[in-house]
Every structure is written in C-alpha cells, then in structure tokens.
Design brief:
- The protein is α/β, with parallel strands linked by helices and 411 residues long.
- It folds into two domains: 20-38 and 75-160 and 399-405, Enolase-like, domain 1 (2-Layer Sandwich), CATH 3.30.390; 166-391, TIM Barrel (Alpha-Beta Barrel), CATH 3.20.20.120.
- Helices cover 36% and strands 15% of the residues.
- α11 (290-299) links the parallel β8 (282-284) and β9 (305-306).
- Bound molecules: magnesium ion.
- Residues 233, 235, 259-260, 286, 336 line the site of magnesium ion (MG).
C-alpha cells in the first residue's frame, strides 16, 4: 500500500505545469534592520520594547526594563520571494533574519526548485520532515512559514483569486478587530471592540506588582466603561500560582481573557490554571508550533482561544489543520497579529471570528502596518473592521527597495 502511495505521488509531481515551475527562491532581510517580519525590531522608545512589559526575562533585574536588552529582536525579519518560470512571484514573511535566510536558501530551496507551488502539502511535508533533526519548533518552522506563505501567494496568483477564496471562500463580510496596545480608550474611540493590555509586572515584583497590575486593569475599565472588552497579555511571564492569583484579583473588572500566562511547554500548567479558574478564559499559542503543539493544547481542553501566528506556526498549510482540529472541539482560532495573512485566514473559516491588530505607532495611539514598509497594499482596519484585499494571492506587493538578500546570492 505504501509503495502504491509513493508511485501516485511521483506521477503527480512529474506532471508539473512547466510555466508554474519554481525557478528561484530568494530570502531577504529588511534594509533598515527593523520591522519586516519582526515587530519587536523597533527604534528605542517604542512602547512595545521600552515600556515595562512582563516577560520570561523579567526575573533578571538587569533585563527587566527593556525587552531589546535581552535580544527579543536579535533575529530580525525574514522575507521570502519565490519565482516561477512564467515570472510570477509569491511572497511570505516571518522572523528569522540571516539565519532564517540560510535555512531557506541552503536547505529548503532544494524541495522548491523544479516543483509546482500548488503542491503545498507535499512541499510542507518535505520541508518539515527534512528539518526534524534541528527543527520541530522555533526558527526552522518560522522559515518554513515564510516559504509556505509565499507558496500560497502563488496559489492565488496562478488561480487568479485571493488566497481566502482558494482556502475556502468568504465566511463573513468583514472581520471585527481588537487592538493590542497601551491605549484602550483610544482604540474604543477608533471603533474597535476591545483592547489587550500588556501586563507590566510578573512574579518577581511580588504582591506590590500584583496590586499595580490590578490597578492598571481597574483604570482601563474605568476609562472604557462596562461594555468594551479588555484582555491581558502576559507574554509567558507568569507561573501557575501567580496566574491564579491574578485571575482572582482582576475578576471584578471582567477581563475577557488572560493570554499566554505560562511558558509554552507547560501544558500541564495550562490545564491546572483552567481547572482552578473555570470562569476565566485563557488563551495561548503565539509561541506554539505545528499541529502537534496545538494538539497538546486542544486535547487538554485548557485553552479557550487558540492563537497561532501564521508567520511562525508553519504558515497556512499548518494553520488550516489546526483550525480543523479546533473546530471539532468548538475552540475558536484567532491568530496572533499576522496582518494581511490573518485577514485571509479569518475570512475563510467559520471558527475564526475576529482578528488581532497591533497599535504599531511608537506611542501606541495609531494602527500602522505590522510589517512596516516592506509591503505595498497591506490593508489596515477601518472603523474597527478589516477585509483582505480581493486581488490575486495575498494582494500585497514586496517593495524591493526595503529589503536585501540575507546571504550573498550564489555564495
Ligand atoms: Mg500575545
């Protein structure tokens, strides 16, 4: 039976439409060294790196004040462009910088060159299996994600349809958005349905820090009134006892969910906080990878919303498997802020009800493109809603003046 399956696959590959054949794979980094797939790569003073935000390194006083001090932006952005014999190009993005470029051009490209970009399942499987010795999570899957997104761009262009139509079509007219950032009243005024606040203090700040966290939530609730959603983003900074204490302390202020309180590998801990606080919604997933990581979260029924990042989790090919698994358990999937890629994904599935957007202006007052200026045509929300472009593919264009090859061509 296995031999029959392989023979079938070989036949399909040999039937490649030569005009669609992949002839080049190029990996870029942003010329500025900022943005372009790594939204933490910002100038000094930006709220996302230089305001007090609890994180896994907050336990070390020397690295507490600024997240760039411990290298949250050390890798930088990764942009992948894939070209076919007909001259069509597809583009994808992730974090990964020069090491990501190396993986794409020196390893993954061997499976891509000569292939049909529409063979997304085989190509994903080959990239994933071949990187298992050093991959499984993190950088290798980020590199695969950027490639996968570029393949889906080509899928749309070759079929002359936006990606959401290739994926499954429209399930809604437009997508409601909430904002992650420090200015909830501003986001309410702009028409968004909710705001997610970065949590400033973690367990190392003790009871005083916990009370400051509660005061922040109380003040935000006071500013936005009772009918606007407030969420808390904990960026892997907490532990089980602190998460339970936080959930109980902010209960009077109706926090819709507490996000990513624990380190991603503590699946048992996620189950324990849900058991201890069944009335509180918990979410996680932005630092989880592939269907296997999400299977751990789904099977334990410990997470109320799954949040894969489409540019990190393995791209759309993997995210749609996660959405399918989650649908069988009535768990919504709301990707971590993945910009236009999120918009297409959330348009195409019924259990992807709304979208995260980030307030990327330095003061957190305005919504600007999450990938900076590397793309043209990246849509921004209007009045609290967003729609993916109806152009073929993702509907965005790479601005080549904003990127350069990560490793010298032909080296
Ligand atoms: Mg988050």
């Amino acid at each position: 039976m296995a031999r029959l399956a392989c023979a079938w696959l070989a036949k399909e590959v040999s039937a490649t439409d030569k005009r669609a054949e992949i002839v080049d794979v190029r990996a870029y980094i942003p010329v500025t060294g900022r943005e372009g797939g790594d939204y933490h790569a910002q100038r000094t003073g930006h709220w996302i790196v230089d305001s007090l935000i609890a994180n896994p390194m907050s336990v070390y006083p020397a690295y507490k004040e600024s997240r760039t001090s411990w290298g949250i932006d050390a890798l930088g952005g990764l942009i992948v462009e894939i070209e076919t014999r007909s001259g069509a190009t597809g583009v994808g993005i992730s974090q990964g910088g020069v090491p990501g470029c190396f993986i794409v051009e020196r390893h993954l490209s061997r499976f891509l060159l000569g292939s049909d970009p529409r063979d997304v399942e085989r190509l994903w499987d080959q990239m994933w299996r071949s990187t298992l010795p050093y991959g499984r999570k993190g950088l290798a899957i980020c590199a695969i994600s950027a490639v996968d997104l570029a393949l889906w761009d080509l899928c749309g262009k070759l079929r002359d349809e936006p990606v959401y139509r290739v994926l499954g079509g429209a399930t809604k007219d437009r997508i409601p958005c909430y904002v992650t950032g420090p200015q909830p009243a501003r986001y309410k005024a702009l028409g968004f349905f909710g705001a997610k606040l970065p949590l400033p203090h973690g367990p190392a700040d003790g009871h005083e820090g916990l009370m400051k966290n509660v005061a922040l939530v109380a003040q935000a609730r006071d500013e936005v009134g009772p009918d606007f959603d407030l969420m808390l983003d904990c960026y892997m900074a907490l532990d089980v006892p602190y998460t339970i204490a936080l959930a109980e302390a902010v209960r009077p202020y109706r926090v819709r969910w507490i996000e990513e309180p624990l380190i991603p590998d503590d699946y048992d801990g996620h189950a324990r906080i849900k058991t201890a606080c069944p009335w509180q919604h918990f979410t996680t997933g932005e630092h989880e990878y592939t269907r296997y990581g999400f299977r751990e979260l789904i099977s334990r029924r410990c997470v109320d919303i799954l949040q894969p990042d489409l540019t990190w989790v393995g791209g759309v090919t993997e995210a749609r498997k996660i959405a399918a698994m989650a649908a069988a358990y009535d768990i919504p999937v709301v990707p971590h802020g993945s910009g236009v890629f999120s918009s297409h994904f959330q348009m195409a599935f019924t259990n992807t009800p709304f979208q995260e957007t980030l307030a990327m202006s330095p003061d957190g007052m305005d919504i600007t493109p999450i990938f900076g200026n590397v793309f043209r045509g990246d849509p921004l929300p209007e009045g609290g809603f967003v729609r993916p472009p109806d152009r073929p593919g993702w509907g965005i264009e790479l601005d080549h003046t904003q990127v350069r090859r990560g490793i010298p061509a032909g080296s």
